[in-house]
């Protein structure tokens, strides 16, 4: 059992670690007039939006003169992208969207963020575009041409095509609104959404999609000097010559969120949590499985809160696990268990309601979890079946048919030894000391026995 003192030694360092990590880095530096450099790499998700939001709020509070979003991203979740764009539009500090280093890209969600930034810049040999929303209905496809209102319904267009058009039109209106606010090319913005068009850095500059090309951050600051931008507080002229650049790294909270918001990690946490609680309920008093299971399940639920999960997929997974657990306690010759495995696999496949690359559950992980669950279920059923075939070793049934030896004979009582125990017995035929007998009946604590055909008078 864990004592309070042991809990202190375990939890104390963790509390100190988290409190220490919560203290903002570089809090004693004078950051007034500096440029905050944020690196947005990989898939844009909840952790990315939280990181950008905190860094921009910090920059505004500490008097930063510029915020640079250095991006290399294939895109990400619509909700996270819109949160970042809302922060950019409301920022009193100019935000520069910068695709770098050379070879980087800002596809899909990254293109929208570039259009929302006060200044858009790219390094040579980079590209942006392919902004078509990929969160489409199952089996949906992009329409070759958007029909006039009402025409699709008359032609018998399916509801999936209608939903696809709605998603496309919403994305077009959104990016055109950003383009109009920043004075950028609206026609190409629409083309990037409808046709998934992409541009190189030089082409983007020529088509007025971006404002400048810079090979690195130093060159970017030189090119920005003297430019006028329109922010929430009014027009501002940038003075970036000799400006200090402060890299802003994600804090412990953003790193933790990035880990648990990974769909595969959230999936594993949920399984560990559920199976831990099942084990604790089946074996009360172990404590550790219940503690680990509860913590894992809470972390998984937090991750699912920020991920676009399908409620039907989650319900099927929980139902499948419940069926497999019920098979252990209510044997149904495999019906509940097999149904549970099927429901579990289907729920795992449709759990995440998105087609964004990087935000799906790995097939090998699903297969491994299903096989492990099925293997555990098979082991339980095998052990249950084997226990039913095993001879009874206690109770009335164990005594019937057992053999013993007469140890004492008197006029009113016979004593026999059966399974190493002495029992009072009654016989309907004469017996002698040392004769072997077989138990035929059990009346209370008295055995009804009969002599065996072969006598054994020796111990």
UniProtKB/TrEMBL annotation:
Subcellular location as annotated: Membrane
Give the signal sequence positions. 1-25
A GO-annotated cellular component: membrane
Record domain NfeD1b N-terminal: where: 44-134
Keyword check for Methyltransferase: no
Domain of life according to the entry: Bacteria
According to the record, the residues making up region (Disordered) are 139-160
| Membrane keyword on record | yes
- GO molecular function annotation: peptidase activity
Q: Name one Pfam family in it.
A: NfeD1b_N
Arranged from A to Z, the UniProt key words for this protein are: Hydrolase, Membrane, Protease, Signal, Transmembrane, Transmembrane helix
Please report the stretch or stretches of sequence annotated as the NfeD-like C-terminal domain. Answer: 396-451
The NfeD integral membrane domain is annotated at 264-381
- Predominantly, its location class is membrane
Q: How does it sit in the membrane?
A: Multi-pass membrane protein
InterPro entries documented for this protein = ClpP/crotonase-like_dom_sf, Membrane_assoc_protease, NA-bd_OB-fold, NfeD-like_C, NfeD1b_N, NfeD_membrane
Family annotation (Gene3D superfamilies): 2-enoyl-CoA Hydratase, Chain A, domain 1, Nucleic acid-binding proteins
Q: Which GO terms describe its biological process?
A: proteolysis
**Residues spanning the membrane:** 256-278, 285-303, 309-326, 333-351, 363-383
Name by which UniProt lists this protein: Serine protease
